[in-house]
What does this fold into?
Amino acid sequence: MSATLTLPDTAATAAAGDGKYLYGIIEAPAPARFDVPAIGGRGDEVHTLQLGRLAAVVSNSPRIDYDNSRRNMLAHTKVLEAVMARHTLLPVCFGTVGSDAETIIEKILRARRDELVGLLGQMHGRMELGLKASWREETLFDEVLAENPAIRKLRDSLVGRSPDQSHYERIQLGELIGQALQRKRQEDEERVLERVRPFVHKTRLNKVIGDRMIVNAAFLVDEALEPGLDAAIRAMDEEWGDRLSFKYVGPVPPYNFVTITIHW
It folds into this structure.
């Protein structure tokens, strides 16, 4: 059976010279509109372009390069959140503008149909959640000294000595503390991840930020297992909250597990 190609009606048609800003790909049985402000602040309508049940979420837009200002990034994200509330979503990279509706339908929905349908199947019934865990600064150095007698002894030997007199010892102390923190980060990271693994379909570990962060992870989670993951993180916070702080967010657009990049 051939797919139906659906173009927007007059209310959503672009003005002369406009393109289509592309937010993401969904499966939808019929054309849809979303009551959320579009990027650009012009009051454009967020709607779908369809090829059968496959749909691109778009809004009219000038053919410009959008800068990644807080306003633009927030507008893009708010649209994704509104779409996610109703559909499984494949997010498209920020700032993607197509020349017109026909180009998006032909070059994305038709040309990449099998790829997109497969990815939607993989993401169906799943969500991305994020977790950051960091040491509490007030306990960190005390732990390092308590667990490493050699570091404590070297630290104590520097008391009362000027930086000039103890230059090399201070360099050595910094290196030893750095090595101890790296070992400690790996151990604590594994403890945290071990608690969440039973509830997670996929994990992506992103680069930690700063000296105190030990985990910067994104999880792809089946909806049915989300309550178990929530409970596991609450239990860690209760058990380790005196030495670790946790930041748990989501659901968020699943950029860590699928992002559609468009090359016109």
